[in-house]
């Protein structure tokens, strides 16, 4: 008698998230960017272990010491020192923690408010929907950095106010993404079936619509994260964000740009840190978008 294994063959169907990863893994550029970003994130997490010195500690006998690979560099200062003798490597490592943590706070705040407003707008009466969208259109009509500068100039410089300013600038993007995605899903047959079955708006959103609008929201989160890092750095460079001696990348640039002619490493290094961080996040976001589009169009 033949065994059951000769008659039955069970095929495991991968989940949506597994298929996303499979498509993303095939994009080698996005995969390398993800690895780079994870390395930067680990550097930020373990900054206390990696940094050899306190980022605010000046060495008065080593002002503008070049990186260790220069002929007159010192091995104890791997990336040299700044204009008051602070170790550049320690400041960049702690700057990664500060910049990424500030960007995370901005994204969480803007996403929570923006998605909530998008949900309200998509389910609300026409007049409330129009009111919310006109406010969002007004914010989007202004250059984001200029609006952030104006907001910080009104409420005052500092880290908390910089977070609020950049979050306000990013809110409309989440409102538009969530509202558009919900409006699109509301017209589908499964939503109509649930309505006819008596499902409430809350159940309809959390159990049916939300899982289907996650892809554009996830992509927007990655793009908003890179925007938050850039604008926080810009505010820090203008003296409106993190204030000295906080080792935020934009603030480091602001303190060092006057010495670019005879100490270029003090400007080049934080600039490269911002560049590679933004590049890796944007490439990861593009890879996620491509992977989700492939799954959507199958």
Tell me about this structure.
The structure is a single chain. This protein is mainly α and 298 residues long. The chain has a domain at 29-51 and 95-249 and 275-297: Orthogonal Bundle (MetI-like fold), CATH 1.10.3720.10. The protein contains 11 helices and no strands. It has helices spanning 16-26, 28-45, 47-50, 88-123, 126-141, 144-155, 159-186, 189-196, 201-237, 249-256, 265-297. Helix 2 crosses helix 11. The longest helix is centred in the last third of the chain and has 37 residues, at 201-237. The model has no long low-confidence stretch (mean pLDDT 86).
Secondary-structure content class: mainly alpha
Shape-level CATH architecture of the domain at 29-51 and 95-249 and 275-297 = Orthogonal Bundle
Model regions low in confidence, pLDDT < 50 over at least 5 residues: none
**Terminus-to-terminus distance:** 42 Å
In CATH, what is the homologous superfamily of the domain at 29-51 and 95-249 and 275-297? MetI-like
User: What number is the mean pLDDT?
Assistant: 86
Kindly report the CATH topology of the domain at 29-51 and 95-249 and 275-297: MetI-like fold
Structural Rg: 24 Å
CATH class of the domain at 29-51 and 95-249 and 275-297: Mainly Alpha
Summarize the biggest pleated sheet: none
- The number of distinct helices, counting runs of at least 4 residues, comes to 11
Identify the overall geometry: elongated
What letter string, H or E per element, gives the SSE order? Answer: HHHHHHHHHHH
| β-strand number | 0
Residues in helices, as a percent range: over 70%
- What portion of residues belong to β-strands? under 5%
């Amino acid at each position: 008698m033949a065994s059951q294994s000769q008659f039955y063959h069970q095929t495991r169907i991968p989940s949506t998230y597994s298929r996303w990863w499979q498509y993303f893994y095939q994009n080698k550029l996005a995969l390398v960017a993800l690895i780079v970003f994870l390395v930067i994130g680990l550097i930020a997490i373990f900054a206390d272990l990696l940094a050899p010195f306190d980022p605010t500690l000046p060495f008065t006998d080593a002002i503008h010491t070049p990186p260790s690979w220069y002929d007159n560099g010192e091995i104890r200062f791997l990336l040299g020192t700044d204009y008051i003798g602070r170790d550049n490597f320690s400041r960049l490592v702690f700057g990664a923690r500060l910049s990424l943590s500030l960007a995370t706070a901005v994204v969480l705040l803007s996403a929570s408010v923006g998605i909530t407003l998008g949900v309200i707008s998509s389910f609300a009466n026409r007049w409330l929907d129009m009111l919310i969208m006109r406010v969002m259109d007004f914010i989007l009509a202004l250059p984001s950095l200029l609006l952030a500068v104006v907001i910080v100039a009104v409420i005052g410089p500092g880290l908390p106010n910089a977070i609020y300013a950049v979050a306000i600038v990013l809110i409309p993007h989440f409102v538009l993404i969530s509202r558009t995605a919900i409006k699109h899903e509301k017209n589908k047959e499964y939503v109509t079936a649930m309505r006819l079955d008596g499902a409430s708006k809350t159940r309809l959103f959390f159990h049916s619509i939300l899982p289907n609008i996650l892809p554009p929201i996830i992509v927007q989160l990655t793009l908003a994260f890179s925007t938050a890092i850039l604008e926080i750095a810009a505010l820090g460079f203008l003296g409106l964000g993190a204030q000295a001696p906080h080792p935020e990348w934009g603030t480091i640039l602001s303190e060092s740009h006057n010495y670019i002619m005879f100490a270029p490493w003090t400007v080049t290094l934080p600039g490269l840190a911002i560049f590679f961080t933004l590049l890796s996040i944007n490439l990861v976001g593009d890879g996620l978008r491509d992977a989700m589009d492939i799954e959507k169009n199958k």
